[in-house]
Amino acid sequence: MKILNPITTLLEKRFYDYYKIKIIIITLSLLSFVFAVVGGGIYYFKVKHSLLKEARQRCVAVLNTVNKNFSLFLTQYELAVKALSRLKEIRACIKEPSPISLRHANYVLDVFSNSFKVEACYLMDRHGITIASSNRDSKNTFVGKNFSFRPYFQKAMQGHPYIYPALGTTSKRRGVYFSYPVYIKGKESPEGVAVIKASIEYLESRFLSRFPGIFFFVDPNGIIFISNKKEWLFYTIVPLDPHTIERVRRSKQMGNGPWLYSGFKFSGNMAQDPLGKRYLVFESKMRLFPGWKLLYLLDERYIFKNLHRPILEIGGPVIIGLMFLVGILVYFLSQIAQRELKNREKIEQKLRKSEEKYRSIYHNTPAMLHSIDRDYRLLRVSDYWLEATGYEREEVIGKRLTEFFTPESRKRAEEFVLPYFFKKGHTKNIHYQFIKKNGEIMDILLSCYGVRDASGEVVETLAISVDMTERLREQQELKEAKKELSRYSRELERLVKQRSREIDAILRYTPSIIYLKNKDLKYRLVNPGFERLFGVSNQGVRGKKDHEVLPCEIARQFQENDYRVLKNRSPSQIKEVISLGGKDYVLLSIKFPIYNENGELEGIGGISTDITELEEAQKKLKELSRNIIKNQERERARIAKELHDELGQILTVLNMDASWVERRLRDVDPKGARRIQSMKQLIDRTIDEVRTLAFQLRPGTLDHLGLIEALESLIADFEKRTHILYTLHKSPIPPIDDTTATALYRIVQEAITNAIRHASAQHIDIWVCYNGTHLEVRIKDDGMGFPVNHILSSCGGFGIAGMQERAELIGAQIKISSCPGKGTEVICSIALK
Asked: How many CB atoms lie within 10 A of CB 259?
């Protein structure tokens, strides 16, 4: 017993100590559980409050940024439409919308549309009708459309520039319309309106797509006009009453509806969509659109999506540990703490990566970024800033920014710009000049935003600078180009007026008949000559067709010839015979297609000359020429007969007498006999020459044997007198009259003579062929050839002219083809009855 008592006492003490430790552990565990629950709750609500506050600040910043970016981006279009309205080409087009002024205005509108990347630039007259537009060639062209009902037109015609967001009535595309009045010198009120339409889709993709949440640009009636969620466009944030719906429909600003209620319920700074999602709501007024407001809705789940995860990861194991393993609570708490530390380490790593990413963006973005403190000393500069200025980082950090300005820019910045900025916290589009390290001066456009401390005071800046040197140089060049274009336009206008006067004088005083028609063959213009001949007026025939103003036969003839020119799309010279008042007129008409600047056929023109008297004179001249040639051939035949019969006989008798004298003197006077013999030889040569001359004047074979035999005789005669090879290719031909045979014989004779005399030919081929209807004579040589057009247009070429005249007198067609070095070919074809 004495031995057990100490053991029992020890066991009891240990049991008591164990129980005491157990109570302490349970108490500590319960206290840990209570503290964990209380701390978790406090942590939860603190984190929730912090996240909510941070989200609100971020959303306000996002809302302000979007609003400012919208305003800044749209301001450039205000300046652009103002500049557009003051261009001389635009004013000239409003003053006198001629085709030339419209072409110049369209060119300027195209330049502005392409430069500013807008949907359309257009020009309206004082009645609201669009007369020129950059989208004139599209299917949704504004040209010819009347937009006088639009407020931007009405305000501009009252002398006030206006910005108007609306849905296009023609293109059915959303846009922001910037209008500006167009004044003409000498007029106090506007005579037209210049308009630029900027695309809404471009604004949405550029400024709204990179932010979470929903953006609503809402008009005064509550209709959603711009949003990064396309499904909510043209819904309303509040139900519209019928009166408001009718008023919106009449204005056509938002199309024809329907404008259904979106189902969003707004209460203070909270909103709930039709599916029950809750959003934080932030609202801002639009500076450029009075009465409009910008709503930014951010889903609560997006804000608190990471709030519950740590709580569940911590709370679940703790509760299970308290229920089953209270003794290892500390272990779980240590594990949770370790995981929390690891999470914090991961978050820190993410923060470091985010900071590195921010630094990379800061230094690599193609814009000059810098920050200064309240003493104007540089705190940070981007790598691009250093690259653009040429400085090293250690050369600029800590120095005052204004030390690098020109004196004028430094004075303006220190006295006005920087004090104003640190007071207001923002500034934009400030122009100053910066001196680079190499001494060059840069023109800079600066926009700056302030970084505030907890008290709201601006402590440093985040500035974005854009090098405007090249742009200003381009603007100066553009200004010079505009001056040159203006000078050229004035000179062109002067020349156009001068040419217009000259053309008007030609149309008025020319004896020719001139008209212009559109592609439907309706008259657009006729000159006084047309009016006098047909007894009509220019005003009376305009817009009418031939059969409406001219006799049927004349109208049919004119229309057929005009259709032929339109079909062939090429000029045509036509001889037209018309009867008016019992008198026949012969008109030589030149009809030609008219094309616009795009190469499209838009009409036809005609110039007709009255050649009635000329035709009569030509008929008489042809008859006279025919008689002259007949008489000439008759005279040739008479002279040839006299030469052959009379002179030939005389020379023959003389030759016989000389032979008799030679026989008498041969023994008595040998010297005289030799002289007589020489005389006989001379008489023989003279007889041959007389025969040749008689043959050339009129070959007897032509009268007695026909064309083929005459040509054979002609070729034989040429072979005796030249060293050229001749070849006659013949086929049987029917009998032909003497006039035709003579003309064809003379054409062959002239062609061979020309080949011998001028072409140095060595071989000449002659073909005489008959195909049953036409007789064809063809002469081809291998001579040096000649340029046909040059010979015919010069004062020479009488032999060719003679051949053409003889062919024309017998009704034959003659074709002469030749080129230098390739020989010459003459083809004469006549139809035989």
From this structure: 21
Q: Which class in CATH covers the domain with range 510-606?
A: alpha beta
347-394: pLDDT as tens digits: 767 767 766 666 776 776 777 888 888 888 888 888 888 888 888 888
CB-count exposure of residue 101 (10 Å: 0-12, 13-18, 19+): buried
CA distance 716 to 714: 5
Torsion of CA 655, 659, 662, 667, to 10 degrees: 180
- Which residue in 462, 470, 405 sits closest to 436, CA to CA? 405
| Helices and strands (H, E) in the chain, number of each type | 26, 26
Q: What is the pLDDT of residue 122?
A: 92
Task: Determine how many CB atoms are found less than 10 A away from the CB of residue 603.
Answer: 18
What's the pTM? 0.37
Contact 294, 284 (CB under 8 A): yes
pLDDT reported for residue 261:
84
- Comparing 212-303 with 705-833, is the CATH topology the same? no
For helices 4-85 and 200-207, what crossing angle results, to 10°?
150
Between 762 and 342, the more confident residue is 762
The residue extents of the domains of the chain are: 212-303, 312-358, 365-467, 510-606, 611-698, 705-833
* Residue pointed to by tokens 């700056």: 448
- pLDDT tens across 636-687, in order? 666 766 665 666 677 777 778 778 877 777 778 888 878 887 887 887 778 7
What mean pLDDT is predicted for residues 571-579?
Answer: 83
Please name the residue that has the structure tokens 């001629």: 98
- Residue 168 in this model has a pLDDT that exceeds 80: yes
Quick check: helix, strand or coil at residue 733?
A: coil
Q: Which CATH class is domain 365-467?
A: alpha beta
Pick the CATH number of 212-303 from 3.30.450.20, 3.30.720.120, 3.60.21.10, 3.10.180.10: 3.30.450.20
- The sign of the CA dihedral 9, 11, 16, 17 is positive
Q: What is the distance between the alpha carbons of residues 551 and 464, in angstroms, rounded to a whole number? A: 79
Q: Measure the CA–CA gap between 215 and 228, rounded to whole angstroms.
A: 6
Got the DSSP string for 54-95?
A: HHHHHHHHHHHHHHHHHHHHHHHHHHHHHHHHT-HHHHHHHH
Q: How many other CB atoms are there within 10 angstroms of residue 808's CB atom? A: 15
Question: 193 forms bridges with which residues in the sheet?
Answer: 124, 181
159: left (phi over 0), alpha (psi -120 to 50) or beta: left
Q: How far apart are CA 564 and CA 604, in angstroms?
A: 11
Please report which confidence band the pLDDT of residue 584 belongs to, taking 50, 70 and 90 as the band edges.
confident
83-120 tens-digit pLDDT: 888 888 888 898 888 888 888 888 888 888 888 788 89
Residue 305's contacts (CB-CB under 8 Å, 6 or more residues apart) are none
Tell the CATH topology of 705-833: Heat Shock Protein 90 (3.30.565)
Residues 6+ apart with CB under 8 A from 86: none
Q: Which pLDDT value is given to residue 19?
A: 46
Q: Alpha carbon of 683 to those of 651, 654, 679, 695, 771: distances in Å? A: 7, 8, 6, 18, 48
Q: 158-186 burial, b if ≥16 CB within 10 A, otherwise e?
A: eeebbbbbbbbeebeebbbbbbbbbbbee
**With b meaning 16 or more CB within 10 Å and e meaning fewer, what string describes 709-740?**
ebbbbbbebbeeeeebebebeeeebeebeeeb
Q: What is the mean pLDDT of the chain?
A: 78
pLDDT at 81 over 80: yes
CA-based torsion, 713, 717, 719, 725: positive or negative: negative
Distance CA 830, CA 825 (A): 17
DSSP 240: P
